[in-house]
Amino acid sequence: MKKLSIVPILALMLFSFQAKSQSKEVTNQVMEGASKKHNATTVKFKITGITCAGCSNAIYNELKEVDSVLEHSVEYPGDIAVIEFDGSKTSIKALKLIIEKKGFKAEVIKGKV
């Protein structure tokens, strides 16, 4: 009978170890995300040359491929791009060049984003 009571205890121990391991993994992911946000810089561009939603989608998809871009949006109508990026990995100038290589003109909008 003593052997049977050990089985549930061992099962509980294994379960708690696995839950604790998963908890650490989630914590590490949250910390990694927080550290990326710590270096985050936001820039707002006025884009000239957007004539349709396809144009804004082309810019959006190009920015989506940039590893250092954390979040971004491209508005049409409005012709505004707001980009949050890791300032330790790229620059405003580099992001402007990405937009201009797609055939649009981009100017930084000064002030609060």
TrEMBL record:
Q: Which PROSITE patterns match?
A: HMA_1, HMA_2
Alphabetical UniProt keywords: Metal-binding, Signal
> Source species, please?
Arenibacter algicola
Name the Pfam families for this protein. Answer: HMA (PF00403)
Record CDD domains = HMA
The segment(s) forming the HMA domain are 41-107
Signal peptide location in the record? 1-21
- Show the GO MF annotations: metal ion binding
Source organism superkingdom: Bacteria
Q: Does the keyword Metal-binding apply?
A: yes
What's the protein here called?
Heavy-metal-associated domain protein
